[in-house]
Each structure stands twice: as structure tokens, then as C-alpha cells.
Amino acid sequence: MKAIEYVLPEEIEKRSFEIIGEELQKRNIRIPGEQEAIVRRVIHTSADFDYAKTLCFSAGAVRMLEELLQNGADIVTDTNMALAGINKKALAGFGGAAHCFMADEDVALAAKDRRLTRAAVSMEKAAQIGKPVIFAIGNAPTALIKLHEMCRADWRPAFIIGVPVGFVNVEAAKELILDTDIPYIVNRGRKGGSGIAAAICNAALYRLRDAGRHGD
Question: Rounded CA gap, 105 and 157, in Å?
């Protein structure tokens, strides 16, 4: 039986990240420097070390994501759970805001009339924000499919975090994004979720904050 380790509340996260570092070392897993904070926070959120191997980053993805956040980009999610998980105070410190349009009445009506998912329609609504948008998709592969369709129609999102979880069209939808030239962080396979999408956003925000580059 594993012994209880007594840790002060304010030290729990620090100790968790120390354990993650020890586990990665034992598994001989080395993560490229700029990706490390994101991968470790995703593992911290999920307790799943598979993410160290399955998270895929486009060239310069972390730098691009941080530049977007620092310059006040907004974040659009496909669930209110992901929206709740994003540190909106830190985001606001850079001039950005987080949105989820899934429960909006106009989205629901349009989805019903057009026989589409709310996630797909909410992506179209997000395209009207009028500023760079980071899409953090943790649940709906149809959101990724719609984003891919919109890209082919000459509309370009600033960044895509594609980590939906599930079984139907999830892997295929992720592969669509991997095949674009849009900056992305995508988790290959079935795993993901709203918490993972939020964790990726927060990891980038905290890196900026800890580097003293604005934010609260």
C-alpha cells in the first residue's frame, strides 16, 4: 500500500509536476523545450503519460500560440466545460476573451434548420468575431470538420487546438487538421477532452505570465 505523502495545499501542484518530471525521466521520455510546459500540464490534468507521445505540434506552434495570446487573441471553445477551465483572468490580462457559442439560441435554431451540429454552426459564428481566434476543441469532431471546410473556402483560423475525445469521426477529424498549414496542437488518437483543451490554453498563458509578459 502506497504511503500517504503530506503536502501543504499550496505545494500540491508543485509536487505533482515534480512527480511528472520523475516519471518522464524513468520512461526515458524527452520533450522538446518549448513544448514541455504544455505536455506536462496536459499530463497533470489527465494523469496520462500517453500524451507525451501523441500530442502533435506544427512547426513553431508554441511560439505562435503565445504570440497570439500576447497580442490579445480570443479563444473559442466547443464546450462550456472547456470555457470554465480556461483562466479567463490571465487571458484578459493580455486583452483576450474566451467564448463558447454552443448554448446560444441562434446557433441552436440554425443547427436544427440546417441539420448540422451546434458545434459546426458555432464555428461559423466564431468566424465573425473580427479578430484572431484560437479554437480550443475538446469534444466535437464536427467542429474540426467544419473548420477544415471553412479553411478550404479561404477562411483561415489563427490557431487550432484539436483534442476532441471519442469514437465517431474523432481520429479522422484530427487528421484533417494535421493535413493543413494552419498552426495547430492536435492529439492523435481517441483521447482528449474539454479539460485537455483548457489545459493547453492555460499552459501557454502561464508561460507568458511567468516570463513577465503581461497577464495576471
Answer: 24
Among candidate residues 156, 198, 104, 58, the one with its CA nearest the CA of residue 112: 104
Whether residue 30 lies inside any domain: the answer is no
Confidence of residue 214 (pLDDT cuts 50, 70, 90): low
Residues whose CB is less than 8 angstroms from the CB of residue 149 and which lie 6 or more positions away in sequence, other chains included = none
Q: Is 44 considered catalytic here?
A: yes
- The pLDDT mean for the chain works out to 94
Among 178, 138, 158, which residue's Cα sits nearest to residue 42?
A: 138
Residue 197 lies in a domain: yes
Residue 166 lies in a domain: yes
**What's the rounded Cα separation, in Å, for the pair 55 and 38?**
9
**Domain region containing 111:** 54-210
Model pTM score: 0.94
Please write down the HEC assignment for all residues of 84-152: HHCCHHHHHCCCCCEEECCCCHHHHHHHHHHCCCHHHHHHHHHCCCCCCEEEEECCCHHHHHHHHHHHH
**Number of domains within the chain:** 1
Stated as kind and residue range, the H or E segment containing 191 is none
Q: What is the DSSP string of 12-70?
A: HHHHHHHHHHHHHHHTT----HHHHHHHHHHHHHH--TTHHHHEEE-TTHHHHHHHHHH
Q: Is 72 within a domain?
A: yes
| Rounded distance between C-alpha atoms, residue 3 and residue 178, angstroms | 43
Please give the radius of gyration of the chain, using alpha carbons only, rounded to the nearest integer. 17
